[in-house]
């Protein structure tokens, strides 16, 4: 069997040679690149499965290299490292698609562990990325709407993993449909005739979550007036969906790990273990890699949960799926609300396609419900949209109609608001990169930074 191919990208030849020598000794085929631009060429030349890259490099730095690499070869796994770590840098790297981040100097054994896990992840995903999706059970996925390449790849991945009993970790922004995907996996599995039990770990108080998951015996604590079966036992022979797993406290993480390892649990107040046969599907909108790095989430539990990781694409990356979703929700709410809205004006479709959708599919669904109820009939036009949805390139660039109110208004305040909105839009489009945002606004980077300080504008994903 041919060994895996790994590319090391670092402008420091000593570090590059050192890491390359170690991985070659471990049996991998190793190639080297002296910066991001060189690495992009070497990736195609050698068809590598993994890239290990430094962040601080000339010409194309590590962050930009990862972004470009993910756009052309999304199946390649990347591990990044740097001696100049901070929370913001780590967040940007992971959002760009890095599999893991290491601080220099790093332990070679730790590096090897992440290389092995990264290659396992790459092997699982590569066929999905490279092959044309073939959806056999599309009828069972009807609740998940989409025809974009990313969604078709997701459908194929769901079909592949449904037949196994392996633990699945679904990650994605809030509102992307994580529970729908979990239910689809269950419905396509050989456990479909048994229960699908969902628990939102963030919605249940910490002091009650243990009892909710594992059950309790009568008298085990104040208020325990009767023995209660927990969600694990309810899901026996079926599927347990643990939503917002990133919010689970450390003491419960230990108990959950024990259940995953031993397939048995102890109800609160009991000394007798019970065997359970449950498939676990976990989900979170948080970045578990960051939580693990910050010691807020157990690393051993993370690896137990992410045997099969699935990442849901945000709505802004799904192209024409927005129009499909709009029409589907329009039909749904016309029926349920007994309305007769005929459709969306072309300009409305363009505006909503331009919108960033921070709340993803859930936000879009809520918007359509609101429009259907208020409009009642006819065609939805730009004037029917709430102001924030008219902020794209089809609203004269300022996010609202340029009509002077009868009573007048404060021009200075309007200009200030207009400028603030454009700055924030530029930062969103550049994913927080201030240099790119300044270029979009035709400003110097230093001028933009001064404006941000003066206006006290805060953007959560920023680059220095």
User: Helix count?
Assistant: 18
Report the β-strand fraction as a percent range: 5-15%
In CATH, what is the homologous superfamily of the largest domain? Answer: P-loop containing nucleotide triphosphate hydrolases
Distance between the termini: 45 Å
In short:
This protein has helices spanning 13-25, 36-46, 62-72, 87-96, 108-130, 149-162, 178-188, 206-214, 231-234, 250-262, 288-293, 299-305, 321-336, 346-354, 360-375, 411-429, 434-440, 445-455, and strands at 5-9, 29-33, 50-54, 77-82, 100-103, 168-171, 196-200, 239-243, 264-265, 274-275, 279-284, 308-311, 340-344, 377-380. With 464 residues, the protein is an alpha/beta fold.
């Amino acid at each position: 069997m041919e060994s895996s191919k790994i590319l090391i990208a670092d402008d420091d030849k000593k570090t590059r040679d050192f890491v390359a020598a170690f991985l070659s000794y471990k049996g991998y085929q190793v190639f080297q690149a002296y910066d991001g631009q060189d690495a992009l060429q070497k990736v195609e030349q050698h068809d590598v499965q993994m890239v290990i890259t430094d962040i601080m490099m000339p010409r194309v730095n590590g962050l930009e290299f990862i972004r470009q690499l993910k756009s052309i070869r999304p199946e390649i796994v990347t591990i990044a490292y740097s001696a100049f770590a901070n929370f913001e840098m780590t967040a940007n790297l992971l959002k760009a698609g890095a599999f893991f981040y290491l601080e220099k100097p790093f332990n070679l054994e730790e590096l090897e562990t992440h290389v092995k896990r990264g290659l396992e992840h790459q092997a699982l995903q590569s066929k999905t990325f490279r092959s044309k999706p073939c959806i056999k059970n599309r009828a069972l996925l009807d609740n998940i709407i989409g025809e974009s390449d990313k969604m078709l790849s997701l459908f194929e991945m769901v079909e592949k993993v449904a037949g196994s009993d392996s633990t699945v970790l679904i990650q994605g922004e809030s509102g992307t449909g994580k529970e729908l995907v979990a239910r689809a996996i269950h419905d396509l599995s050989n456990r479909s005739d048994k229960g699908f039990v969902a628990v939102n770990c963030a919605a249940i108080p910490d002091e009650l979550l243990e009892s909710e998951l594992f059950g309790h015996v009568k008298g085990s604590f104040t208020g325990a007036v009767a023995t209660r079966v927990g969600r694990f036992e309810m899901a026996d022979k079926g599927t347990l969906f643990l939503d917002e797993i990133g919010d689970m406290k450390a003491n419960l993480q230990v108990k959950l790990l024990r259940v995953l390892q031993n397939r048995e649990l102890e109800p609160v107040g009991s000394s007798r273990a019970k065997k359970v046969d449950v498939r676990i599907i976990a989900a979170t909108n948080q970045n578990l890699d960051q939580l693990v790095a910050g010691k807020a989430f157990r690393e051993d539990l993370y690896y137990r949960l992410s045997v099969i990781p699935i990442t849901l694409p945000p709505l802004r990356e799904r192209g024409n799926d927005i129009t499909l979703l709009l029409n589907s929700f329009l039909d749904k709410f016309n029926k349920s609300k007994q309305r007769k809205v005929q459709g969306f004006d072309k300009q409305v479709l363009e505006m909503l396609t331009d919108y960033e959708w921070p709340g993803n599919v859930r936000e879009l669904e809520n918007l359509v419900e609101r429009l259907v109820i208020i409009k009642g009939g006819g065609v939805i036009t730009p004037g029917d949209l709430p102001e924030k949805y008219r902020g794209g390139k089809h609203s004269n660039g300022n996010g609202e109609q340029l009509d002077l109110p009868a009573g007048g208004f404060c021009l200075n305040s309007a200009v200030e608001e207009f400028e603030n909105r454009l700055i924030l839009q530029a930062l969103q489009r550049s994913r927080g990169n201030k240099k790119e945002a300044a270029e979009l606004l035709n400003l110097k980077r230093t001028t933009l930074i001064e404006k941000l300080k003066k206006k006290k504008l805060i953007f959560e994903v920023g680059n220095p």
